[in-house]
Predict the structure.
Amino acid sequence: MSGLSSLWRARWSKPALFIVCLTPVFRLYFRFRTDDLGPNPIEELTHVTGDWAMWILLASLSISPLRKIFGQPDLIRFRKMLGLFAFFYAILHFTIWGYLDKMLNIEEMWEDVLFRRFITAGMVSLLIMIPLAITSTAGWIRRMGGKNWRRLHRLVYISAISAIVHYWWIVKSDIRYPALYAAILILLFALRWIPVKRSA
Protein backbone atom coordinates (compact mmCIF):
# COMPACT_ATOMS: atom_id res chain seq x y z
CA MET A 1 0.00 0.00 0.00
CA SER A 2 3.04 2.29 0.20
CA GLY A 3 2.76 3.00 -3.52
CA LEU A 4 -0.81 4.18 -3.07
CA SER A 5 0.19 6.34 -0.12
CA SER A 6 2.79 8.04 -2.28
CA LEU A 7 0.17 8.58 -4.97
CA TRP A 8 -2.24 10.32 -2.57
CA ARG A 9 0.58 12.52 -1.24
CA ALA A 10 1.83 13.53 -4.70
CA ARG A 11 1.69 17.28 -5.33
CA TRP A 12 -0.20 16.78 -8.60
CA SER A 13 -2.92 14.56 -7.09
CA LYS A 14 -5.20 17.37 -5.90
CA PRO A 15 -4.90 19.43 -9.12
CA ALA A 16 -5.65 16.24 -11.06
CA LEU A 17 -8.78 15.61 -8.95
CA PHE A 18 -9.81 19.25 -9.45
CA ILE A 19 -9.66 18.81 -13.24
CA VAL A 20 -11.54 15.51 -13.08
CA CYS A 21 -14.32 17.11 -11.02
CA LEU A 22 -14.62 19.97 -13.52
CA THR A 23 -14.75 17.63 -16.53
CA PRO A 24 -18.58 17.28 -16.45
CA VAL A 25 -18.92 21.09 -16.69
CA PHE A 26 -16.58 21.20 -19.70
CA ARG A 27 -18.49 18.34 -21.31
CA LEU A 28 -21.84 20.04 -20.73
CA TYR A 29 -20.48 23.27 -22.23
CA PHE A 30 -19.23 21.36 -25.27
CA ARG A 31 -22.61 19.66 -25.67
CA PHE A 32 -24.31 23.05 -25.38
CA ARG A 33 -22.04 24.60 -28.01
CA THR A 34 -22.62 21.69 -30.39
CA ASP A 35 -26.39 21.60 -29.80
CA ASP A 36 -26.11 18.09 -28.34
CA LEU A 37 -28.37 18.41 -25.29
CA GLY A 38 -31.36 16.67 -26.85
CA PRO A 39 -34.91 17.91 -27.38
CA ASN A 40 -35.14 19.38 -23.86
CA PRO A 41 -31.80 21.04 -23.05
CA ILE A 42 -32.94 22.50 -19.71
CA GLU A 43 -34.10 19.12 -18.47
CA GLU A 44 -30.85 17.50 -19.59
CA LEU A 45 -28.74 20.16 -17.85
CA THR A 46 -30.80 19.77 -14.69
CA HIS A 47 -30.51 15.99 -14.63
CA VAL A 48 -26.79 15.85 -15.43
CA THR A 49 -25.81 18.40 -12.78
CA GLY A 50 -28.02 16.63 -10.23
CA ASP A 51 -26.46 13.26 -11.03
CA TRP A 52 -22.94 14.64 -10.66
CA ALA A 53 -23.81 16.35 -7.38
CA MET A 54 -24.98 12.97 -6.09
CA TRP A 55 -22.01 10.98 -7.38
CA ILE A 56 -19.44 13.41 -6.00
CA LEU A 57 -21.26 13.63 -2.67
CA LEU A 58 -21.14 9.84 -2.39
CA ALA A 59 -17.45 9.92 -3.35
CA SER A 60 -16.78 12.36 -0.51
CA LEU A 61 -18.64 10.11 1.92
CA SER A 62 -16.56 7.13 0.80
CA ILE A 63 -13.29 8.72 1.93
CA SER A 64 -13.58 7.85 5.64
CA PRO A 65 -14.50 4.16 5.21
CA LEU A 66 -11.96 3.64 2.43
CA ARG A 67 -9.10 5.15 4.40
CA LYS A 68 -10.04 2.92 7.34
CA ILE A 69 -10.48 -0.29 5.36
CA PHE A 70 -7.37 0.07 3.22
CA GLY A 71 -5.20 1.86 5.75
CA GLN A 72 -4.80 4.95 3.57
CA PRO A 73 -5.01 7.99 5.88
CA ASP A 74 -3.79 10.35 3.14
CA LEU A 75 -7.11 9.96 1.32
CA ILE A 76 -8.48 12.54 3.76
CA ARG A 77 -6.71 15.20 1.64
CA PHE A 78 -9.43 14.87 -0.98
CA ARG A 79 -12.57 14.85 1.16
CA LYS A 80 -13.02 18.62 1.40
CA MET A 81 -12.51 19.15 -2.33
CA LEU A 82 -15.05 16.46 -3.16
CA GLY A 83 -17.55 17.90 -0.70
CA LEU A 84 -17.18 21.39 -2.17
CA PHE A 85 -17.57 20.08 -5.70
CA ALA A 86 -20.73 18.24 -4.66
CA PHE A 87 -22.02 21.57 -3.36
CA PHE A 88 -20.92 23.28 -6.59
CA TYR A 89 -22.92 20.87 -8.73
CA ALA A 90 -25.90 21.11 -6.38
CA ILE A 91 -25.81 24.91 -6.77
CA LEU A 92 -25.61 24.52 -10.57
CA HIS A 93 -28.56 22.12 -10.40
CA PHE A 94 -30.58 24.65 -8.39
CA THR A 95 -29.53 27.59 -10.58
CA ILE A 96 -30.56 25.85 -13.80
CA TRP A 97 -33.94 25.06 -12.27
CA GLY A 98 -34.45 28.53 -10.85
CA TYR A 99 -33.04 30.63 -13.69
CA LEU A 100 -33.63 28.62 -16.87
CA ASP A 101 -36.73 26.65 -15.89
CA LYS A 102 -38.53 29.09 -13.57
CA MET A 103 -37.04 32.31 -15.00
CA LEU A 104 -36.40 33.54 -11.43
CA ASN A 105 -40.13 33.69 -10.72
CA ILE A 106 -39.71 33.73 -6.93
CA GLU A 107 -43.41 33.23 -6.23
CA GLU A 108 -43.61 30.17 -8.46
CA MET A 109 -40.35 28.79 -7.06
CA TRP A 110 -41.58 29.25 -3.49
CA GLU A 111 -44.88 27.50 -4.30
CA ASP A 112 -42.92 24.57 -5.77
CA VAL A 113 -40.77 24.34 -2.64
CA LEU A 114 -43.86 24.32 -0.42
CA PHE A 115 -46.21 22.10 -2.41
CA ARG A 116 -44.12 19.82 -4.65
CA ARG A 117 -42.57 17.27 -2.36
CA PHE A 118 -39.63 16.32 -4.57
CA ILE A 119 -38.55 19.96 -4.73
CA THR A 120 -39.01 20.27 -0.97
CA ALA A 121 -36.66 17.32 -0.46
CA GLY A 122 -34.11 18.76 -2.88
CA MET A 123 -34.20 22.12 -1.15
CA VAL A 124 -33.66 20.49 2.25
CA SER A 125 -30.57 18.74 0.85
CA LEU A 126 -29.18 21.97 -0.59
CA LEU A 127 -29.84 24.05 2.54
CA ILE A 128 -28.01 21.50 4.69
CA MET A 129 -25.01 21.64 2.36
CA ILE A 130 -24.64 25.42 2.71
CA PRO A 131 -23.35 25.52 6.33
CA LEU A 132 -21.23 22.44 5.62
CA ALA A 133 -19.53 24.21 2.70
CA ILE A 134 -19.06 27.43 4.68
CA THR A 135 -17.46 25.62 7.64
CA SER A 136 -15.21 23.37 5.55
CA THR A 137 -12.05 25.39 6.25
CA ALA A 138 -9.41 24.74 8.90
CA GLY A 139 -10.26 28.09 10.47
CA TRP A 140 -13.83 27.01 11.12
CA ILE A 141 -12.64 23.74 12.63
CA ARG A 142 -10.53 25.72 15.10
CA ARG A 143 -13.35 28.13 15.90
CA MET A 144 -15.97 25.44 16.40
CA GLY A 145 -13.75 22.82 17.97
CA GLY A 146 -13.25 19.41 16.43
CA LYS A 147 -16.14 17.74 18.28
CA ASN A 148 -18.74 20.35 17.34
CA TRP A 149 -17.43 20.50 13.78
CA ARG A 150 -17.73 16.73 13.35
CA ARG A 151 -21.23 16.80 14.85
CA LEU A 152 -22.32 19.45 12.35
CA HIS A 153 -20.77 17.66 9.39
CA ARG A 154 -22.58 14.43 10.17
CA LEU A 155 -25.60 16.24 8.72
CA VAL A 156 -24.12 15.42 5.32
CA TYR A 157 -25.88 12.05 5.61
CA ILE A 158 -29.22 13.82 6.02
CA SER A 159 -28.39 15.90 2.95
CA ALA A 160 -27.56 12.75 0.96
CA ILE A 161 -30.77 11.03 2.09
CA SER A 162 -32.83 14.08 1.12
CA ALA A 163 -31.11 14.21 -2.28
CA ILE A 164 -31.93 10.54 -2.91
CA VAL A 165 -35.56 11.07 -1.85
CA HIS A 166 -35.66 14.10 -4.17
CA TYR A 167 -34.52 11.93 -7.08
CA TRP A 168 -36.76 9.00 -6.11
CA TRP A 169 -39.87 11.18 -6.10
CA ILE A 170 -38.96 12.72 -9.47
CA VAL A 171 -38.59 9.47 -11.41
CA LYS A 172 -41.66 7.79 -9.84
CA SER A 173 -41.47 4.49 -11.77
CA ASP A 174 -37.89 3.98 -13.04
CA ILE A 175 -36.14 3.99 -9.69
CA ARG A 176 -32.92 2.26 -10.76
CA TYR A 177 -30.62 5.23 -10.22
CA PRO A 178 -32.05 6.47 -6.92
CA ALA A 179 -32.12 2.87 -5.69
CA LEU A 180 -28.44 2.51 -6.64
CA TYR A 181 -27.60 5.74 -4.81
CA ALA A 182 -29.54 4.56 -1.77
CA ALA A 183 -27.72 1.21 -1.76
CA ILE A 184 -24.33 2.91 -1.97
CA LEU A 185 -25.22 5.31 0.84
CA ILE A 186 -26.41 2.46 3.08
CA LEU A 187 -23.19 0.57 2.38
CA LEU A 188 -21.04 3.61 3.17
CA PHE A 189 -22.93 4.26 6.37
CA ALA A 190 -22.57 0.60 7.43
CA LEU A 191 -18.84 0.60 6.68
CA ARG A 192 -18.34 3.45 9.13
CA TRP A 193 -19.45 1.17 11.97
CA ILE A 194 -17.82 -2.08 10.92
CA PRO A 195 -14.55 -2.64 12.81
CA VAL A 196 -11.59 -3.43 10.59
CA LYS A 197 -9.12 -6.02 11.86
CA ARG A 198 -5.52 -5.03 11.34
CA SER A 199 -2.95 -7.69 10.66
CA ALA A 200 -0.17 -7.89 13.23
About this structure: The chain has a mean pLDDT of 91. DSSP finds ten helices and no strands in the chain. Residues 141 and 148 are 8 Å apart (CA to CA).
